[in-house]
Specification:
Helices cover 30% and strands 32% of the residues. It is an alpha/beta fold. The strands form three sheets. The chain has a seven-stranded mixed beta sheet, with helices on both faces. Strands 2-3-1-4 form a four-stranded antiparallel beta sheet, covered by helices on one side. Strands 5-6-7 form a three-stranded mixed beta sheet. Helix 4 runs parallel beside helix 5. The longest helix is centred in the middle third of the chain and has 13 residues. The radius of gyration is 19 Å and the shape is globular. 38% of the residues are buried.
Length: 277
Amino acid sequence: MNYIAAIFNSKDQTFEWEILTAFLAEFGFETFEENESGLKAYIPEPDFNKSLIDGLLNDHFKNSKISFNHELIHDQNWNALWESNYESILIADRCLIRAPFHPADDTKEFDILIEPQMSFGTAHHETTAMMIEYALDADLVGKQVLDMGSGTGVLAILASMRGADKIDAIDIDEWAYNNCVSNAEKNNIKNIVIIQGDANVVNKKYDIIFANINLNILVNDMEVYAKALNIGGTIYFSGFYQNDLVKLEHEANLFNLQLTDTNVKNDWMAARFSKVK
């Protein structure tokens, strides 16, 4: 089958490509590659509808100055092409994130199998990598953990491997939910409850929360996260740019969440907050 590669670029470094990706997934795009200047998305040729994309860009992203073009990829071994472009990644020399076609490495403390499909969370993006670094340093033993916007489930899986008692993994997208279920099974993880939904389904208390989404959702749902976090608990945020920290911190402070640490990679930021009362 032939595929179409849709190519999106923008000079706006603050543009949140995750939002565009979510829309494209609804149009039937199957695979996504984010790079320094933009996004490349793939879809089977029969499912490609240029007018849908033009309408999306005009209706939802008309002020974002996004350029768009597309190219035909002729019939080939699609899995082989995908595998050739997807590399394993090592975080902090402790945690190997790899696809099933990559060799295992028993010299690493944590070896996590992730088949990303259309879901976020392969550790190739700076936000996921920073959250994994935080998860590697956090005291998770015996803790109740929420992975909000779980994508592939990599943070929930790592939390389980690091001794968390019970983990909830929540994502609004059906494909992310199914992918998380599959990845938990691949890693033989039994203590993750995987839920499809948004912040409205959060109904219990947690010691640790990971929320790697985007600035608008983080700010909008801050009260939900704060109410779900035990006093003295820790929440880790990512999915926003360094210059957005002021807005995020202001909203967090309204709900007794105090900034305790930050990390930056290529202008992307992750931040740790504690609930003080």
